[in-house]
Amino acid sequence: MIIVGLDPGIAILGYGVIEYKGNNFKVLDYGAIITEAKETFPNRLKILYNDLGELLDRYKPDAVAIEELFFNKNVKTAINVGQARGVQVLAAVNRGIDVFEYTPLQVKQGVVGYGRAEKKQVQEMVKLLLNLKSVPKPDDVADALAVSICHAHSGNFRNEFRIK
């Protein structure tokens, strides 16, 4: 099974592409799609949609796993990132790819085994589980890989976490 994990964002969209077979992980690709603040907001959404679409077309994943948004204070940022997240979901759905969403707590639980784990613990487990030489940077990339690992460990390949 090929899984694309996404850490949604408008400025930085972290992604991680893994193959999960027989409880083993193989990293296929990871990185970030970056949009510049000088671009118009609609153009930033277009860049995210097109670049993510190219990635999905290249790897033809069985599933896209995306982290749910969590914001404390900044409503404007939450709205912008929410719109970007919608574009990212649309890129997958338009290609017939099932999309699954996970809360930050579920991602930590799925990677570390403890829902209140620190960010550093999650990053180190991503490095360990995927046999990487170092923790991917920026943090959004490590987070995206964590989301893909969470989906692999969840067994939720056809159930309630799917966006319908």
Arithmetic mean pLDDT: 92
Helix content: 40-55%
Topology as H/E string?
A: EEEHEHEHHH
Q: Which architecture per CATH?
A: 2-Layer Sandwich
Distance between the termini: 20 Å
CATH class: Alpha Beta
Helix- and strand-based class? alpha/beta
Total helical elements: 5
Q: How many domains make up the coordinates?
A: 1
User: The CATH topology, please?
Assistant: Nucleotidyltransferase, domain 5
Structural write-up:
It is built from five helices and five strands; from the N terminus they run E-E-E-H-E-H-E-H-H-H. The protein has 164 residues and is an alpha/beta fold. The chain has a single domain, classed as Nucleotidyltransferase, domain 5 (2-Layer Sandwich). The chain has a five-stranded mixed sheet with strand order 3-2-1-4-5. The chain is globular and about 40 Å long.
Features:
164 residues; alpha/beta; Nucleotidyltransferase, domain 5; 5 helices; 5 strands
List strands and helices in order, with pairings.
Blueprint lengths: L1 E6 L4 E10 L2 E11 L6 H19 L3 E5 L7 H19 L4 E5 L1 H9 L6 H11 L9 H16 L10
Parallel strand pairs: 1-4, 4-5
Antiparallel strand pairs: 1-2, 2-3
Helix pairs in contact: 1-2, 3-5, 4-5
In short:
With 164 residues, the protein is an alpha/beta fold. The protein has helices at residues 41-59, 75-93, 104-112, 119-129, 139-154; strands spanning 2-7, 12-21, 24-34, 63-67, 98-102. A five-stranded mixed beta sheet has the order 3-2-1-4-5.
